[in-house]
Amino acid sequence: MTNQTDDQSSQNPSLDNDENLDWAKQAYEKLKRQQEEQKLEQQILIEKTLPKKSTEIISSENNQINSLEETSSFSDDVPVTNTSSLENLSNEFIEEPILGDFDDTFTWSAKILEAQGKKLDNISLDEINWLSRLQKGLEKTRKGFVTDLLEKFGDDPLTPETVDDLETLLLRSDAGVNATDQIINALRTRLNEEVLDSKEGLRFLKEQLCQIVDKPIENSELNELAPKRNRLNIWLLVGVNGVGKTTTLGKLANLALKSGFSTLIAAADTFRAAAVEQVKVWGDRSGVPVISNNTPNADPASIVFDAIGAAKSKNVELLLVDTAGRLQNKNNLMEELSKVRKIIDRLAPEANVESLLVLDATQGQNGLSQAMAFSKSAELTGVVITKLDGSSRGGGAFAVASQTNLPIRFIGAGEGIRDLRPFNSFEFVEALLANK
Ligand SMILES: Nc1nc2c(ncn2[C@@H]2O[C@H](COP(=O)(O)OP(=O)(O)O)[C@@H](O)[C@H]2O)c(=O)[nH]1
Ligand SMILES: [Mg+2]
């Protein structure tokens, strides 16, 4: 994945050219063939394994930790080598994607991959499905934003009035005052210098939007967040109740395992008994072991203590820590997070620690105040934005990036195990402004 600030759409005419569907057609044919082959393979596998007892197929936790193939970073290309049980294959949350029709959404997704220089040999159905979901998910934000915008842009050159309208639309999509000002000022300056036709205006807008979300990523000097190989990485998932921390953790566990990282989960949200159970379900789904303590209100720091011990003894590369989003009061919550941080710093000073704030896109700019509240005790290093599949406030991503300087690392658009991806500004902005 790359974060692209340069002019993708004009570098590659295929994004603008509806006639040129060749690549998309070839991609569709390729994926169709691939799916048929996979079906056949699965059929053979089922026939082979059916006479055996299902317990023989269940792989042990140790197996999962020790038998993982090494790959360079998060990738789609490594198949999941272990599934915890055959029953799980029918679980709606981990269902394999199915190739849909060759429709506008497919061709849009294919064009986005093509524009980023993806080769036909390397594309996967997962990627196409993800882009389709992201594009559909951002529909609500788009309806209140782009549809109006495109109508206002029309076919004529941009006018100062159009720019004023754009300002309103950006604010309405929850992009925030800072980001909106930056974009509008850039547009006005450009408009003072030359006449902008609507196409160039839109391209310039996309470029500005990308720059806002890319800036914190560039400042962090880390283009894409992935665990470092052969050492302990500890990722804390923090955020208020219900934003999607546990779900994100489950998806990350799956992504990490698929990419060949030995992974472990610490169930450190002990505030609700159900929270531990929920983490265990995700552990099962993704095939990643979970360190937990079933005692009600067990000390989260002690669970993290145990988990670090287990991680070290098993050479785990990624320890994912689920945390509580609500305690008796906010101070308790922040104290608890500080305590967890201290344990990590003391027990694993060599570890690569990421503290990821999970934000719910449907809450728009509220994410900003949440970021402020968590930034001190959790020493935040990045953001995950969830629920982009149903938000009308997708513009909140720009507010968070421009005002907190925290890089957006992953985005989630659905409740399924595959519905999370590393953040890619080009894909995000194109999905937001897609006119189909
Ligand atoms: N539609 C949608 N729902 C999500 C997403 N992420 C999480 N959820 C749902 O949000 C609810 C709260 O998620 P959970 O992970 O328990 O939040 P937590 O309290 O922060 O751990 C659950 O019903 C999840 O299924 C997402 O990207 N899209
Ligand atoms: Mg939770």
SSE string, helices as H and strands as E: HHHHHHHHHHHEHEHEHEHEHEHEEH
Query: Approximately how much helix is present in the residues?
Result: 40-55%
Unreliable sequence segments: 1-14, 53-72, 76-90
Mean pLDDT comes to 83
Count, helices: 18
- Percent of residues in beta strands? 5-15%
Strand order of the largest sheet: 3-2-4-1-5-6-7-8
Structure description:
This protein is α/β, with parallel strands linked by helices and 436 residues long. The model is unreliable at 1-14, 53-72 and 76-90 (pLDDT under 50). Helix 15 (330-347) packs across helix 16. It has helices at 8-11, 22-49, 54-57, 61-66, 104-115, 125-137, 139-143, 146-153, 160-172, 177-193, 198-220, 245-258, 273-286, 300-313, 330-347, 366-378, 396-404, 425-432, and strands at 233-238, 263-268, 290-291, 318-323, 352-360, 382-386, 408-412, 420-422. It has 18 helices and eight strands. The chain is globular, with a radius of gyration of 23 Å. Helices cover 51% and strands 10% of the residues. It has an eight-stranded mixed β-sheet, sandwiched between helices. Residues 245-246, 269, 275, 322 line the site of magnesium ion (MG).
